[in-house]
Write a structure and sequence with these properties.
Number of helices: 27
Strand content: 15-25%
Number of strands: 29
Radius of gyration: 33 Å
Mean pLDDT: 77
Shape: elongated
Low-confidence stretches: 293-298, 790-800
Number of domains: 7
Length: about 800
Amino acid sequence: MSRACFHCGLPAIDEFSIEIKGENHAFCCMGCQAVTLAIMAGGLSDFYSYRDKLNVQAKPVGSSYLAYDLDEVQEEFVSLLEDGSSEALISIPDISCAACAWLIENHIINLDGVKKISVNATNYRCRIIWDKSRTKLSDIFIALAKIGYTATPYLESQDGAMRKAQSRTALIRLGVAGIGMMQVGMFAIALHAGSIQGIEDSWQQFFRWFSLLVATPVVFFSAAPFFKSAYNNLKLFHLNMDVPVSLAIGLAYVASIWATLHNTGDVYFDSISMFTFFLLLGRFLEMKVRHSSAFSTEKISRLLPLSVTRVNKQNREEVPLKALNIGDTVEVLAGEVIPCDGRIIEGHGVVDESMLTGEFLPQSKKIGDFVFAGATNHETPFLLEATAVSHKTQLASVEQLVERAMMDKPHIVASADRLASRFILFILITAFGVATYWYFNAPDKALWIVLSLLVATCPCALSLATPAALTAGTLRLRKIGLLVSSGQLVEKLANVSHIVFDKTGTLTEGDFSIAKVLLQSDKSEAEVLEIISALEANSRHPIAAAFQKTALPYVASNVEIITGGGVAGEVDGIYYRFGKKSFACPNKTLDYPSDGMWQLLACGDEVVAWVLLVDKPREYIQELLNFLNSKKIKTLLLSGDRKANVDLFAKTYNIEAVGQVSPEEKLATIKNMQKDNARVLMVGDGINDVPVLSGASMSIAMGDATRLAQTHADAVLMNGNLRTIVTAMELATRIRFKIKQNLTWALIYNVSILPLAAVGWVPPYAAAIGMSLSSLLVVLNAVRLGADNSSDGNSGKIKK
């Protein structure tokens, strides 16, 4: 008799065999043998003990994966992180259980250059962060293939199809359980009536056997997700909510089969079908609520048009959106969604950017203004020059940060998971004690009382209480204009003790204009501005924007940008420095011409010109500061601007301030505050404040399209509206209140139902209804966070 392949189960060939843990195992082919050897060499032999079914036959690893190393291919599913690492989201359809996820993570993390990997066994998705310079993507795919898994880039279109399939399967399971409940229920009535009025043994046996026949698909099909989830978690020595549920259904089913075979005792086929139906109904409703807009992370890039109007030498042609390139001229008609980021070069319009910024008032746009993909043109047509397309747009950056935030597990969620796991252990111990008591005092009641206890006290609501509120709250923050990129922020924002602000670009607009030029050499004002424009041409600092509107007759070379100082480089063969006086002309003692933001252009030790820049304060500064004062939150302004300017600003708005501080000094100040257990929120412009944003307890950056993907902040204030910070802090407090509400309800329910079920006052079907309703209640309570229109970035007020 031929042996089966140890890896896939197909007929084995003896020449392909190896020894594993002292036993000789054969394989069907060299591919399966190579996969097993790779797994064993990685020290992951426990995989074969944990797996719950055989693997598919391993295929030879060819060169097809090499195409994934091409930049053109990676553009669709690989993104570049701020530290230079690459991040890819891939699909692995061969994943069949939690053991597969364990195997993949432990195998791939050992590859050189792989920094982080996380596998979701439920949606077959894998997120990998790695260093391209040390490992090729094809090497990762080949490593997966060597242990028997086929990897492909994750396609966005799979989301909707997966949801539909999930809903369809859940509905079928619910339907089978419902039909089974009704059919078994009819025979249960006959059996109960017969036990009172008398029934012939032959009819009693017939009803029992028919009930067994109907209940079996309910147990093995409808209730299958409970058993599979419980089994996978028990294998990894973890207790989840499906463990007591599966134990209850399994015990009742086995006991009922025993009673049917021996024609003695009670059967519980009706109870099994009934609480399986109600459990599935509760989860189905909960799933539909989660798929609703309140919890939806559906990518808004799907709203972009499939085709665009490209203008080329007065000719207009319809081309696919994917054919659009940087530099193309695009026509956007009234009512159309803008397909790419770009600069208006002809015409004007009124643009609704609420999808990106949370600002619901349409914004007027004219020639030279930038518009972004996903916004809607309300009025007149205009032409724009594409500056970013596809995954490089601001819209794509927003979606990437949202996805990362949704995958980040805050500490409070992990704590709730641990609490639920311990509560399940307590339930199982209690159930054993209750079973022992009733077995010796009323054996006929013991089983159904234990079943009710296991189902009624299942802490589903306890586990859902925190993540449901955090998810709804995070998405609500996105709608009002605060893009959360770290799941920890929502948890921390309600506990802020100190807020540190940058001035330029944070409490001011960061939209500088040139107020005055004082010439100190023989160069004209036009020449001075042209030289500075050449130096600042590629800078993203707000000051640079004031000069980038000037014509560029020169091209600067060897340009060096000094954080907190200025910019230096060669223009027309001459080396210039432009910025603060201490940077531009360090060897001379100079006085500023007057108060204000003066910048100096110098050539060696020669002063070329002084330039005065003006910047408007943002709206609602005083409202924000008044709110923080009312909450006893301490505020501090740290700015690199000259002390006289900072002191004047601080006096105007009555805020403590320190001027002329470097980014290093800002970071040191915050670290000293944190030594005294201060919970510091840093609000900066994301340019010179990257170290401080990273070092603070939490941080918000005033970002725009070019800074967004590079920010180290926990959130980005997309609309620049300071009242949004007020709203966000109040919303964070409200989220915390909702979490406490949900946890309180869940604990009260579980603590109250436990003694009632233990004394036999809760029948099995009522236990299932109670547990389902408790879960649904906390989810619906969380939905109110996302649906409450009283919370918005314009009012800065939300209901308590």
